[in-house]
Amino acid sequence: MTELVTIVLASTNPGKVAELRALFADLPVQLLSVSDVLGEPLSVSEDGVTFEQNAVIKARAVCNATRMLALADDSGLEVDALGGRPGVRSARYASERATDAENNAALLRELEDVEDRSRAARFRCVLALANPWKESEIQIAEGTCEGAIARAPRGSGGFGYDPLFIVPDFEGRAMAELSEAEKNSISHRARAALALKPILIRALNERLDEVERIAG
Q1: Distance (Å, rounded) from C-alpha 209 to C-alpha 148?
Q2: Which tens digits make up the pLDDT trace of 13-32?
Q3: Cα gap 34→40, rounded to integer Å
Q4: Pairing mode of beta strands 69-79, 5-9
Q5: What confidence tens digit (pLDDT) does each residue in 48-66 have?
Q6: Exposed, middle or buried by CB within 10 Å (0-12, 13-18, 19+), for 27?
Q7: pLDDT digit string (tens) for 63-77?
Q8: For residue 150, which phi and psi values (nearest 5 degrees)?
Q9: Distance, first Cα to last Cα, the chain
């Protein structure tokens, strides 16, 4: 039986943690939260101006704190009619401690007078993998999912802006109306995870080779 390699997730969002665990379930890894490893949350200042910058900040901080492989996700919603907002402030759009419902309501208010044909948007996800054995090296993978913003929330699944995000690939249903399997086949996070897998497999193999070399 292959021994599982632990990867620490730089996220306190239960929805993201659940999705990432599902997306990497086919690899010999166990994904733990920072709290699982350290016993308490790790405060990290996400002061980057891009998803990539924030993902790297979080991955590096968690890797340094745990001395373990660390995987960070920074993701959000970009709405064309709003010049790409809410972007990196997606989780804090309505206020610093906004709930998903408050963020959705704030977005709908801003788009109230925007025609249906001009409500194009996309989810964007950047994953950053920090390796404690190669401290200067952080690997990046990105994924996007194109769609549009509905005029009212729909569905009860997912989290974040999923109730407002219309997915053309699934007959115009909202992301929150998709099953877990359907969402994980087309989401921005799924596409980023798919791009990251070869990088992660290489890191796991390098670590296994190192362990075998030391043991031998």
Answers
A1: 46
A2: 888 889 999 999 999 899 99
A3: 7
A4: parallel
A5: 999 999 999 999 999 999 9
A6: middle
A7: 999 999 999 999 999
A8: -75, 175
A9: 19
Q: What is the dihedral of CA 60, 61, 62, 66, to 10 degrees?
A: 100
pTM, rounded to two decimals? 0.90
- Band (pLDDT 50/70/90 cuts) for residue 171 is confident
Per-residue pLDDT band for 137 (boundaries 50, 70, 90) equals confident
Please state at what angle helix 188-215 crosses helix 14-23, rounded to 10 degrees.
Answer: 60
User: Catalytic residue at 74?
Assistant: yes
Tokens matching residue 210: 């190192």
Joined tokens for residue 188:
């921005």
Choice among 26, 36, 47, 74 that is catalytic = 74
All domains of the chain in start order, with CATH: 5-215 (3.90.950.10)
Q: Which amino acid is at 76?
A: G
Residue 124 near residue 144 (C-beta atoms within 8 A): yes
